[in-house]
Amino acid sequence: MRLGEQSAQAKKQKTVSITVSIIVSCLAPCLILSAFSSREPLHYRLASDPTLKGKSKDGECMDYAIALSSKLAANGIHGRLIFYRWHLQNTHQKGSHVFVMYHLPDKTEWVVDNEILHPKAVPPEASLLQRVFLLSNAPSASVEVEFQDGLNHLSYF
Description:
- The chain has helices at 3-34, 42-48, 61-74, 128-136, 149-152, and strands at residues 78-88, 94-103, 109-112, 120-122, 143-147.
- The chain is an alpha+beta fold and 157 residues long.
- It folds into two domains: 1-35; 42-152, no CATH class.
- A hairpin with a 7-residue loop joins strand 3 and strand 4.
- The radius of gyration is 23 Å and the shape is elongated.
């Protein structure tokens, strides 16, 4: 091959490579979004979105709660953020957390946080403490929970 032919072939390969990169970068978000069933209600898809800031990331419950509550409110779904401190009994492990609680026009309530994949329906008459344990799938682990009422009164969206 002559030098001119090699240069033309290299340009052609570069063009193909760029084209493939553009196609892949355009298709990737579509594939991620299509992973959600369109049969699921909007609130469920929003809360389950793995690309939402803080979703499935340790220590990023606040980022997730703010991102999700903004998306829900923008779609006419309202609720509140619930802040609490926790302490595992007989240990030095303690921390704080926030989760999203929202209600739908059909009078159902849902809870979700950044640590679970999908929102969970809240049984009627469930207490706030029962909602915390609903998120963790534990009936009532040996954990002390203290709600941050000052923040909770201000956290409606």
